[in-house]
Amino acid sequence: MAFRIEQIVLRQIRMPLVHFFETSFGRTYERRMVLVEVRSGGVSGWGEATCGENPFYNEEWTDSAWLILKHFVAPCVLNGEFSSAADIAGRSSHIRGHKMARGGLEAACWDLEARLMDRPLWRHIGGGARKEIPCGVSIGIQDSVPQLLGKIETEISAGYQRIKIKIKPGWDIDVIREVRRQFPSIKLMADANSAYTLADIDHLKRLDEFYLMMIEQPLAHEEIIDHVQLQAALETPICLDECIRSAHQAEQAIRMKACRILNIKLGRVGGFTEARRVHDVAQANGVPVWCGGMLESGVGRAHNIALSTLPDFVLPGDVSASKRYWTRDIIAPPVEVTPRGTILAGDEPGFGYPLDMDWIRRITVREEVLP
Which of 85, 158, 206, 255 stands the most exposed, by the fewest C-beta atoms within 10 Å? Predict the structure, then answer.
């Protein structure tokens, strides 16, 4: 459906987390996110730049996303006529990197087009293989093992189908051993966020005794080749995350046997257009995928739900209930998880959740209308 982007509104919001979230990068207590609203014909579509507050996960952070969106991405599309939301990504492809900023606007355009066509976003992107998506949780590094075990018990009781725990040197083998002792049969995976090197091969091989679903991104964030050597040495499947930013890189990693599973994050690959391409490459090669999270607000979380309805998302993702992260989300009602650990994709137009504009205005720390 053809549409013209008449206006773009950037909002930076500030949301305190219910509980700190710690990875090998450090500890996060609150999120500062950039929301992108695109307007056409009296209808708005919404997206979210999912980068962190610091350039630790990748090169992007909240302030860089604001500048890239304002000075480079928005001018590429404002007042532009588009035959489809699939044309949006190409308009900013000359910008190197900064895919989370670009993806925030691209996702907003998919949401806009879905609303203009009065159809749910999941259907508009070609999803619908399942409308009830399986959910897992990601649990950060805790102050103690008993604290970690308590959190796992809480999430299992809530029905979540898979537990992911963050690891780093000094918080890995012994911790996982205790988790397995307490919970011998749960679906369990470990996420290293690039905390190890090839010098740690013998150490990482010790993970094989715990029959993990996978270890996620154990080596450097830009490294594919070294993961080939590590995967050959491990029985535990490697899942790649940070180093897969395009369908081409996904194809390379699969062809070289650098991994057996892929995590697809909407922002990391630059939006729905490229996410679908990565999905299709993995599916064609028999590699399962799942949807990763970046501590998104309700907007980004709703987009992840839509993405997870594509057919190759066969593993439980990090798409969990709003209440795990926020006392009050920016959508109302918030995202909820069923007692069987699933989320139901609705049939409302766009991403399917009403925005809580009063709350968004209260937590907005800066706003700019373009042009």
Answer: 255
